[in-house]
Design a protein that fits this description.
By secondary structure, the protein is mainly α. 75% of the residues lie in helices and 0% in strands. The longest helix is centred in the N-terminal third of the chain and has 44 residues, at 2-45.
Length: 287
């Protein structure tokens, strides 16, 4: 009887080990398949024009060269494009974190007439596609004289983030109310509770929103394409589009531009990864 039980336990462990091995192999294969386009982009950026069109293609450049990167920055003012994108992204993300955290604190902790109705109205704006509002937005920006400036890409992003408000509001519900009660007993007002208690505890959720907002601002092509027509105001997305010609496209140069555009997003994610993962796991606990 005991021998049969030991044999059954051993068989179950072997089946579990086999299942885990197969699962890990499958995940490794899928991970490599997902990384293949990214590796091809990096590899092509170090190739010559001739090698980029070579058949059969090579996964590693036979003669690595930085010619595509040099041509990218010499042919276009790509450094200015990078500066413009960084400026727009930093100001948009910073303003969005402030306004969204203030709105989230108000919806989660303050009581005022029509709070739930107002919150539903805020959430309903997420259902309106950007293409529906872009024409009225352009008319408004043209009348206030903001076309051909970076303000149409910064100010609306700073002041209108229904998703950010919802995300931070959900996180606020996971914070103990006792901290707020203790602060009020000590004489702290609502803004003091927000600044001294809520804001420091919201770091994981703020990091999560910051990563999402930075990616949205950095990868935005349609907005700059609509509001900007002067080259010195262009962002990196428009700069990469300039690499494509009507009759010919330099693929090594295009891939070099894609690598330059991708690196800041990866850097931001790696720096905030710890807070990002924690914020994702905590923002849906209560609501």
């Amino acid at each position: 009887m005991r021998a049969a039980r030991v044999e059954r336990v051993t068989s179950l462990k072997q089946q579990e080990l086999l299942a885990n091995t197969v699962t890990h192999i499958l995940l490794i294969v899928l991970g490599l398949a997902a990384l293949a386009p990214f590796w091809w982009m990096i590899s092509t950026s170090f190739k010559t024009e001739f090698e980029a069109f070579q058949i059969p293609p090579t996964w590693l450049p036979l003669e690595p060269t930085l010619e595509a990167y040099g041509d990218l920055f010499l042919d276009q003012p790509f450094g200015i494009f990078l500066y413009n994108s960084v400026k727009i992204a930093v100001l948009s993300v910073g303003g969005q974190l402030i306004t969204s955290s203030l709105a989230a604190f108000a919806f989660a902790r303050l009581d005022f007439p029509g709070k739930n109705v107002l919150f539903i109205i805020v959430l309903s704006t997420m259902m309106v596609p950007y293409a529906v509002t872009v024409i009225p937005l352009y008319i408004v920006m043209h009348r206030v004289g903001w076309v051909n400036t970076h303000l149409p890409l910064i100010v609306p992003a700073m002041l209108s983030s229904a998703y950010g408000t919802f995300l931070l509001r959900q996180f606020m519900f996971s914070l103990p109310v006792e901290l707020e009660d203790a602060a009020r007993i000590d004489g702290c007002n609502s803004f003091g509770i927000y600044r001294r208690i809520a804001l420091p505890l919201m770091k994981p959720a703020l990091a999560t929103l910051g990563v999402f907002s930075f990616m949205a601002s950095w990868n935005n092509f349609f907005g700059p394409f609509i509001f900007l027509d002067r080259k010195y105001l262009f962002t990196v997305q428009l700069g990469v589009a300039l690499v494509q010609r009507q009759w010919y496209t330099s693929w090594p140069r295009l891939m070099a531009g894609s690598v330059v555009v991708t690196l800041p997003v990866l850097l931001v994610f790696l720096l905030l990864q710890r807070y990002f993962v924690r914020g994702i796991s905590l923002t849906g606990i209560k609501g």
